[in-house]
Amino acid sequence: MATADPVEAIIGKIRDRGGRATDARRATIRVLLNTGQSHLSAEDIVSQVKLQHPDVAESTIYRNLATLEELGVVEHVHLGHGPSTYHLTEDGHQHLLCERCGKVIEVPEETFAPLAEQLATTYGFRIHPRHFAIMGLCRRCQGQRRAH
Amino acid sequence: MATADPVEAIIGKIRDRGGRATDARRATIRVLLNTGQSHLSAEDIVSQVKLQHPDVAESTIYRNLATLEELGVVEHVHLGHGPSTYHLTEDGHQHLLCERCGKVIEVPEETFAPLAEQLATTYGFRIHPRHFAIMGLCRRCQGQRRAH
DNA sequence: CTGCTTGCAAATAGTTTGCACGTTC
DNA sequence: GAACGTGCAAACTATTTGCAAGCAG
């Protein structure tokens, strides 16, 4: 086996597709690896990358995130109304977003298996639910007056 | 009982809150009633309203939709990446969106009861899922090459 | 040297806001 | 006639695109 460096592993996938290994790409991947399963907006990623490489443009980050999504390395999720958030594809988890306090709860994908089966049987629809958060109220925010 | 007109019934709720009855509001409500449970974007609504009242501004429609949401008469849903879609609050249904062909399937909220109960027990989270569509693949689009 | 990548600036989509005027109660 | 609503234009947020110059392979 070659490199143990996970950054270079992903760069390798990019090369396999005829893509080039650039500093901006390595930096973007590094940020995503370092923050693990957090939910970073594109802007978060941009500012983290700029700490090391101040001249990288936002558009470059967006383009690289799109490339990484095509590769299947990265996914983006919509939490509420704000910007999309990006994270590495790995553990498939679904997001519960509290519409009062903004808290995000991660739920393993297996929790959705029974629902998935029911929708497959009844509607022939195969869900792939991670792309949007499920809204609701967390324990703390229940029993208070409604808001939005 | 007073008016049987559903437009005036909603206008009545607006008045109860100290709001005024205006042409733009009546027109907006009329469009939503006429199209029933369809999924109209703000732009769709604007252009429908403009057929009768060409001078109504987009911003007015947005403001009135917000007012109607505060009243609980209207809800908006995010189907995929495009604009929000608005419809009357009534039957609580969840949306399944095919990420290949864009087809929208409506599913009654009861289908989600077991999941809701599980999440409530395990995480103390009370879901209110209608705000975002669940992504996936419809029957026709399964078994083809992936896309996004 | 070929063409993938980048930075920059400008364009875009969807929605929101400021403000002075108009209308409703 | 006071408060609320409206049109218009401009601002805003998140993201995308055109283009000429820059590097990677």
Which term fits the overall shape of chain A? globular
Strand content of chain A is 15-25%
- The name of the CATH topology of the largest domain in chain A is Arc Repressor Mutant, subunit A
CATH architecture assignment name of the largest domain in chain A: Orthogonal Bundle
Sequence of secondary-structure elements of chain A: HHEHHEEEEHEE
Q: How many distinct beta strands of chain A?
A: 7
| CATH C-level class of the largest domain in chain A | Mainly Alpha
What composes the largest sheet of chain A? 3 strands, antiparallel
Gap between N and C termini of chain A = 52 Å
Question: What is the topology, as strand order, of the major beta sheet of chain A?
Answer: 1-3-2
Spell out the CATH superfamily of the largest domain in chain A.
Winged helix-like DNA-binding domain superfamily/Winged helix DNA-binding domain
The whole-angstrom Rg of chain A is: 18 Å
Q: Largest interface, counted with CB-CB under 8 A?
A: A-B, 33 and 33 residues
**Total helix count of chain A?**
5
Number of domains of chain A: 2
This entry's quaternary arrangement is: homodimer
Helix/strand/pairing class of chain A, anyone?
alpha+beta
Nearest-integer average pLDDT of chain A: 88
